Amino acid sequence: MIRNLPKLAFRNIFRNLRRSALSAVAIAVSAMSIVMLFGLLDGMETDMANNLQSYYTGQVRIRHADFEKYERYNPLHLGVDWNSIEPILTENSDVRAATPRINFPANMYLGEKTHGVMGIGVDFSKEEAFIDFPSVLQEGRLPEAGKNEALMGFALARDMGLTLGGKVTLLSTTATRGSNAITFQIVGLAGFPVAALNANTIWAPLDRVQTFLGMGDQTQEILILLEEGADEKQTAMQIGNEIERELGISTDTRSWKDLNKMYSMLRIAKVAYYFIAMFFFVLGSTVIINTTMMVIFERMREIGTLSALGMQGSELTRLFLLEGFFISVIGSAIGVAIGYIGTYYMGRIGLDFTEALSGIDMEVSSILYPETSVIKSLVIWAYAVVISTLSTFIPSRRASKIQPVEALRYV
């Protein structure tokens, strides 16, 4: 009779199709939800990593050793010499691209309006490896070196009533702790993927910003992109040591993962969601537990008959486990398939979180693209099958302990 258990279990599933379908739907909904959730988290992680490396820190960032200690005071006098460090980076085979940047807070004056903004001085010719300006440029062109021209986030321009050709004056603190002002002409409007960059940033040529802030040839930071496969932490340490050995100066050279707390929190959140997924499947499996218990009471005479014909308690346990296993396989497969297709579709069209992220300073794009993963989907399917099958163990053990005489009394 043991050899016929799988066939018998599979047949029993269709004896009460509505009950079996209820259990399968519970598992399918759980599996579908987890696949979509993980797809969204993966897309968010990839998006944040790309934004951080492109707009904020690169894969490796070089700053003056004491800059972070006094960062709240905007210590522009604690800069690094790009002209001295660039040859060192050029000789490093792991370095793919590098660019100098200066970030400075400023007050923007336009008529009687005043608006706090973040100015960013960049060498646009070197930024091509970091930022795809042709895709973010909505109107106009990029500023030219040596000219008082600027690229502005479109949301900031809209709020200030600015268009191409308009002029704004920025007032900021210089490297010598004095005050200075400069007037820029808006030659381009940009739509960056990160909402905060659209709402409060002005991008200007590095040489004009250096003159404006009295920094000479100094730059606030140097961002670096590495060749594929290069170890970020090891390369950062190597670059820092090379700068100290050749130039005799100490720098704060770290990889982007060591610099961004938000990204680390997202990674921790993903681990937490893995545990939440486990409990989500257990919750969905309670439907199987309940329906299996109902099955046991509904099939008491059948259980008594099978026991009287010689089926042992262990065989009864395996029979109900097999029924739960088949339901779990079918339900999980349907749920994972729907979740995968849904995630793939959302990954093509994107999810617009513009309203949800408005006013939030977070390095996540306003439009997120969930990512699909065949391997993760298969793992979720296997995980759902295991959890759901094991959930039938308790009621199965209950069935195996029923005495034949007691079971045959049920009508």
Outline the structure in words.
- It is a single chain.
- The mean pLDDT is 84.
- This protein has 16 helices and 14 strands.
- The strands form three sheets. The chain has a six-stranded mixed β-barrel. Strands 2-10 form a two-stranded antiparallel sheet. Strands 13-14 form a two-stranded antiparallel sheet.
- With 411 residues, the chain is α+β, with helices and mostly antiparallel strands.
- The protein has two domains: 2-52 and 262-408, no CATH class; 58-256, no CATH class.
- 54% of the residues lie in helices and 20% in strands.
Task: List the main descriptive attributes of the protein structure presented here.
single chain, 411 residues, 2 domains, 6-stranded mixed beta barrel, two-stranded antiparallel ribbon, elongated
Instruction: Give a quick account of the main beta sheet: strands, pairing sense, barrel closure.
Output: 6 strands, mixed, barrel
Number of helices: 16
Radius of gyration: 31 Å
Average pLDDT metric: 84
DSSP E strands, number: 14
Beta-strand residue fraction: 15-25%
The rounded distance between the terminal residues' Cα atoms is: 25 Å
Low-confidence stretches: none
Looking across the biggest beta sheet, what order are the strands in?
3-4-9-6-8-7
Helix- and strand-based class?
alpha+beta
In helices, the fraction of residues equals 40-55%
- Broad shape: elongated
